[in-house]
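Sorry, explain these tokens?

___
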Amino acid sequence: MKRVKKSGRYLIIVLSVMVLNSCVDVHDTFKSKMLVSGKGEKIYINTLNWGVTDDYQYTVITKNSTLLKDRKDTISGIKGLDPFVYKFSGDSLTIFFQKGNRVDVKEEFKTIQFNYIPLDNKDYIKLLSDTRVNKNGCHLVSD
């Protein structure tokens, strides 16, 4: 009798998981932000988020507006830049990130220069706070 009850419980759990999986239609979220340098060169900051709450993210800075549209494109992506904080002025793109993350743009651009600014946690949190209220000229790509 106990064995039958256990089997029944497992069957109910398995069926519940199957029903929930078929009801939840979770898709990846792709965003692309185009930036144009003072000399007319276009670059794109593309992000791909996934997970039930979009809590996993890859970011890529590229000439291709559709790169990273699928998770199979993540080879050139940077993981751990969420939210992604940047400042773009003229021909300079400044990327702010937490120390310990490794950030390196793989593509080469003709006119755009990159500045990488690693910040400790306290300074990064302040930057995020100031950016959210538009105090510093920085932007968030994904939040």
The mean pLDDT is 83. The longest helix spans residues 2-23. Strands lie at 29-36, 42-50, 56-62, 78-79, 85-89, 92-98, 113-119, 139-140. Residues 43 and 63 are 5 Å apart (CA to CA).
